[in-house]
Design brief:
single chain; 5 strands; Alpha/beta knot; 150 residues
């Protein structure tokens, strides 16, 4: 299985960047991944224009998970079960999308195979990236029975 992360903007804060890189390195023991950082939108750019830029980087055969506050809220164990299920189903690539600060266009939302909520709370994009990658690493720790999960 391969993960693809598509998100708007770069992680600029060095502390969040260090955490992100740490969890990505840990995650790389279980899956291959790549990151597509889409340039921050221009002041005049609409959500629809930003959506087209996101969709341009989306592989048509990829199973797509949209991070969305209205998505399913899962425990770490439920997320690990879902990832395990997707592996068993033979999903080759899972793409995780974190849209811009205004959310995503209807076209991007419609393309989503699954919607995941990290929390009812609002996080910065940098925090969301770290939480997502940490939870994916935790999911693989649970799947493999490693002590990190506890």
């Amino acid at each position: 299985m391969r993960f693809r992360f598509i998100w708007i903007g770069k992680t600029k804060d060095k502390h969040w960047k260090a955490l992100q890189e740490d969890y990505l390195k840990r995650l790389s023991h279980f899956v291959k991944y790549d990151i597509v950082e889409i340039k921050d939108p221009a002041k005049h750019e609409t959500k629809e224009e930003e959506g087209k830029r996101i969709l341009a980087h989306l592989n048509q055969s990829s199973f797509t998970v949209l991070l969305d506050i209205t998505g399913e809220s899962l425990s770490s164990h439920e997320l690990s079960g879902l990832i395990d299920k997707w592996q068993i189903q033979g999903k080759k690539e899972i793409t995780f999308i974190i849209g811009g600060y205004e959310g995503v266009s209807a076209e991007v939302a419609e393309r989503a195979s699954f919607r995941l909520s990290l929390s009812f709370l609002t996080f910065t994009h940098e925090m969301s990236r770290v939480v997502l990658v940490e939870q994916l690493y935790r999911a693989y720790s649970i799947i493999n029975g490693f002590p990190y999960q506890k």
